[in-house]
Amino acid sequence: MTSEQNGEAADKMLSGMIRDADEYYAKLRSQYRSQTRVHVAIVGSVIWFAVFVALGVAVYFNVHGPNFDLDLLWAFLTAVASGVITAGAMYVVRKQRGFELTGLGAQLDRIKAGKASSEDGLRLMDSMHAAALTMRKRRLDSAFEYGVGAFILVSVVGLNAGLGALAGVITYLYFRFEALRDYEKEDKRYEDSKKELLLSL
Amino acid sequence: MERPDLYVLARFLDTLYENGGPMKKTNLQMRVGLNYPRFMEYFEWVTAHGFIQQQKDDDGADLYSLSPQGIDAYHRLVTWIRETMKGMRI
Fold first, then answer.
1. What does pTM read for this prediction?
2. Contact A129 B78 (CB under 8 A)
């Protein structure tokens, strides 16, 4: 390969790098949106479950007559309404807060406006890596939500709160362990790769 | 200097690569935006690694450009960035 061909290849790689970063940013945004939906659904479910249990227990211990079924239905509907309202409010708050990683998008736009250099590439890559770590860190929060989800599911299906709690704790610990391991592995891989490059130059 | 900052190193290589031809040391220092002592540390590092070749202009002033080894290092850096980016998972 001649030096001119090498130069063309380097230029192509730099523009390809921007394309990759663009796709990556789009994926981040889409993942953020789906995480928001899951978060909202889980918080809504928790509220629904808590309200239903509280009202259900109150109905069970106070009413033992022909109105029991109707009161239980009201308790259920009140719980559903509470869950929906909370989930809706949470969704609005998260939407107003906006996407946290817009800095990466702005950086990408700045680079697109001019001629990309390898330094731009490095900065972009570091931002992408930081964004990926932020998303991974958020999985630690999701672990708690999954745990609560498992608790509700097992409690409702198995009609056993103890079993539900056990399932919730196991689910939480498992997802937390996986998220932490993934986070540390990815960070180490990235730093090692930088060191290797410097040594190879 | 044990481990240079990758950003500064990239700036050095970018500047010399984009310039194409040889350039004066002062010009290079201005373009990479480092103070003189810091610049000299990096300059010595890239020279020791054979990334820079020296020549003289008609007036006998020193000019510097990327050596074939420097060009190769630049290509390796760009290739590494692209590959690392491709391998990034969310």
1. 0.73
2. no
